[in-house]
Specification:
- About 40% of the residues lie in helices and about 10% in strands.
- The strands form two sheets. Strands 3-2-4 form a three-stranded antiparallel beta sheet. It has a two-stranded parallel ribbon with strand order 1-5.
- It has a domain at about 60-130.
- It is built from five helices and five strands, in the order αααβαβββαβ.
- The protein has about 130 residues and is an alpha+beta fold.
- It is rod-shaped.
């Protein structure tokens, strides 16, 4: 019986210690709250397969949409013919001739040369219209 009480006491002591060590600090709680806020902003991280398979709003034509599908014609996107476009660095097929935000992830589009945009697209598995 003494042995059983001793084991029980040790188990109880060990669980109390581990419970104390596992408690969150105020800093941990703030990080957790921040992560929850991020989740509540309706932003879901998606990989490239998710973005490629997304259905576009049928009310927009391909020229109106920033999300490019199929064979991408960078020269046609560069309407002002300055040799530069704006591209999302996460969703590489989101390209515009004007500054703006990605409609998929909300990131600010980055200005790049047509050559850089082409390299980014090819590196990430997209097809480019040549000439």
């Amino acid at each position: 019986m003494k042995k059983l009480i001793k084991i029980f006491t040790m188990v109880l002591f060990a669980s109390l210690i581990s419970g104390t060590l596992a408690q969150e600090s105020p800093k941990d709680e703030k990080v957790k709250e921040h992560k929850m806020e991020m989740k509540h902003k309706d932003h879901k991280h998606m990989d490239m397969k998710d973005h490629k398979n997304m259905k576009m709003d049928s009310s927009k034509t391909m020229t109106e949409s920033l999300v490019r599908d199929g064979e991408i014609d960078l020269k046609a996107i560069d309407k002002n013919k300055d040799g530069k476009v704006f591209q999302d660095t996460m969703d590489w097929n989101v390209i515009s001739d004007e500054a703006g935000d990605c409609p998929l992830c909300g990131m600010k589009l980055k200005e790049v040369t047509l050559e850089n945009a082409k390299e980014n697209l090819i590196k990430n598995g997209f097809k480019i219209k040549e000439k």
